[in-house]
Structures are given as C-alpha cells and as structure tokens.
Amino acid sequence: MINAVIMGHNFTLVETLPRNNVDIQKDLWKMGLRTTPDKIFLSDDEDNDVQVKIYSDNDIGRHLCLMFDENDTLTQLNALCYLIQNSAEYLDGDIENNILHNQYLSRKELIDDIREAVSANIPVTETFYFPLNAELKVPYEGEMEPVDNDYVIDYADKLLDRLEREQSVPEGDMKKYFIDRDGFSIKSKLKSIEWTALKERGTLYGAVEVRTTEPLTADEKEFMKKFIAGQNEYGFGKKFRENPITTEEGHLFISLGGFGDENDFIYDESEMTDYLDQDSSQQMGGM
Fold first, then answer.
1. Which of these, 214, 219, 204, 201, lies nearest to 150 by C-alpha position?
2. CA–CA separation, 276 vs 281, rounded Å?
3. What SS3 class is residue 220?
C-alpha cells in the first residue's frame, strides 16, 4: 500500500507497509540499526542519522501519505496501513472518496470512520468484563503501592491510548492468537477481539469486545473467558503491565484482572449487569 524508504549512512532499506513490526525490526538489525520503528520519524532531513521517504503507487496510498508529517513515526504509518488493509472488505465508497478528496482533517477522523464501518458490518458484538488492579511506583521511594480505581480513572485516556496502540500493529491483532480447542470452532466466525476499558456506574473495568458473524453459545462464551484470562495473565496483559503509564506521581502499573483475588472475575454482559445490580443493592442495604 505504502512504501517506506529508510536510509542511513551505509544502507537503504525499502519496506512495503503494512508489515509486522517485528519483521521490520529484524530488517533494521540486519542493516546495523538498533532503533525501533516507533523511534524512526518520517523525516528526510539530511541532518538526521536516519531519513525516511514514503510513497505509493496507487491513489489511495498517495493521499494517505499526505496525512503524515515529520513528527509521525514508522509505527504510526504502519498501523494505519494495517487497519485499512484489515478492514478493506467493510469500507464503503464514501470513505475512499473522502480520502481521495482530502476530506479528513485528522487521521483520527479516518480511523473513527473505518471502525464505525467495521462495527456496522459485523452483526454480533459480545463484551466481557474484568477488574483492573493498579499499583504506583514513585521514583526513589521503594516498593509499589496499590492505588484505587478513582486514580486509574484519572488516567483513563492514557490507558485507552496505550491499549489502542498496543493492538494497532499487525502483531497486536489478538484474533491471531486465538486457537480453537476441545472441539470448538469459534475462529471460523470470529472477526475481531479487542481489549479496551469501559466505565460502568462510576468504576472503570477492563473489557474485551469480541465481534463474530453469529452469537457465541454458552459453552463458547466460557471458552472465550478462558482465552481472555490466559491473555490477561500470561500474554497481552503481561506485556501491558510491564510497560507502565507515566503519571504526575510516578509509574502506574495496571494488571488486567485480579489473578485469583477474591474480587477477580470475567463476566459476559448479562453476568456483569447482575453483578452491578447486586453490588448496588448491597450498597443501598448498607446505607
């Protein structure tokens, strides 16, 4: 879709995007460059150690190139290319015309339109909820200290941005890591799995939105919960927790789930409603 020409003192590398960031990183290493794609800016300034020029052989790609400048990175460009490629079957003529006529004032407008088009064409979305546990590490003050949900809410925008960025690149597509076992055939109707966070009745919860071509059965929901639990603890969630969010006080480490805590759970939408109703009743009873 878009070609990125990456130039250093002793090499020229051409990457056709979208491409797995890990593979791009390997290509860079072969050239002796240890900089990661998220640190390579789309600038051809000769004063830089690394310069990047981008071009495309098709009209859509050429107009997408105009949506980036020298403050954007190779990872950001790759992420948009991947989103468009992965959503191509759901994009209508209006989105393409808007790109060709430079109607989008920002990439966010384009991304929002693409996601809306995808959601409109996938008939079933099931949301699963789980708690968020968080700890704060203050520089030079030793151990991490637990923080409450209100503190996490203050940094909800950063949390959502981090979750989105982690999943916007090819290797962050969580659907790729789902494997059918025990006789299930969920993957054939699975369109996407996306980790996010949702505020329900004043509390911020972790959430996974699962989009399928037809509803999941009760047994399939239980299997999906096991997949989510495993990713929260050992896969996506482990990687996410190892990269804290910077706050005014220090570094905020967020765990997706409680990992055996007495308040730990993964609930589907119906179970979550019952849980919230029960919690509200208990609070009213204690007043």
1. 204
2. 9
3. helix
CA distances from 140 to 137, 175, 243, 250 (A): 9, 40, 18, 10
Q: Of 157, 56, 155, 68, whose CA–CA distance to 106 is shortest?
A: 68
**Is the CB of residue 201 less than 8 Å from the CB of residue 168?**
no
User: Which pTM does this prediction carry?
Assistant: 0.79
Cα separations (Å) of 256 from 222, 225, 232, 246?
18, 13, 5, 17
In which residue are the tokens 């962050």 written? 172
**103 neighbors 116 (Cβ within 8 angstroms):** no
Half-sphere exposure of 16 (CA within 13 A, CB side): 5
The strand ranges marked E within 67-161 are 124-130, 132-137, 145-147
**195-217 pLDDT per residue, tens:** 999 999 999 999 999 999 999 99
In tens, the pLDDT along 225-268 reads 999 999 999 999 999 999 999 999 999 999 998 766 667 899 99
Of all helices (H) and strands (E), which one includes residue 30?
helix 21-30
Distance CA 233, CA 241 (A): 9
